């Protein structure tokens, strides 16, 4: 009896599991060709100041699959991380972001751009040389490039992390801690890292105006940032209430749907040009 039931169970789960494994393999296979087939694109999302002026932008990867349509990064970045494909994708993202930096500068609307760098990519030997090569090849100004990394980068590798960051900082590159507050925020580590910026994770921003716990967390993050003299970017600002709540507390940049969604680079470059015209007309 028990054996029968056990077999039934196995039969019940098998097709579903197999389907999932197959779907995952198919995605992985397609991802292997995404770069060469030109299916990837970097979108840009503005980061604005309290006056609504665009001060910077985050470059975010998009995968336009011929059959699946737009595949969100939450689907393919984890697969890329597990398979090591993130090394190729990450280098492509870095090159593309640097191209956009150079393009914005050539258009007369220079701006800071941030690109996400995965821990595997950052700790890979030759990372600094690869970045130098990309900067030389694209002509991008390194002082306008920010690398966004997560707190997990530091685990067990504080020396290597500080060394790599310091070398890139010497080129003028900035560092930002992404999704700050969600990881291992050891203040002792944070103090040793040559970083420029903290990005408050959107999960804290969402309920901050109504939830005293999230409000307290944000105040703590702002105190840490002030103490370490770090710039702050608030991620995922969707409502006027959230923006006002933050504006009352400290100067920072705002990134979120309230101010602009990630969009193809052309859109942001047009907004920058329009902003420049407005500013020169009013001065
Ligand atoms: P992230 O670096 O924390 O990027 C911010 C995410 O928040 C983006 O999701 C952005 O579209 C989203 N977002 C911005 N404003 C709002 C808002 O007001 N409301 C909500 N609900 N979401 C908002 P996206 O583009 O789907 O990217 C997800 C994650 O995928 C990124 O999180 C990053 O960890 C990863 N990722 C994206 N592009 C790259 C890349 O080129 N390289 C690497 N290594 N990771 C990347
Ligand atoms: Mg980011
Ligand atoms: Mg983030
Ligand atoms: Mg996030």
Automatic annotation (TrEMBL):
Keywords: Membrane, Signal, Transmembrane, Transmembrane helix
Domain EAL positions: 24-276
Gene Ontology terms describing biological process: cellular response to nitric oxide
Molecular function GO terms recorded: cyclic-guanylate-specific phosphodiesterase activity
UniProt protein name: PAS domain S-box-containing protein/diguanylate cyclase (GGDEF)-like protein
Lineage: Bacteria, Pseudomonadati, Pseudomonadota, Betaproteobacteria, Rhodocyclales
Shown residues in whole-protein numbering: 525 to 807 of 807
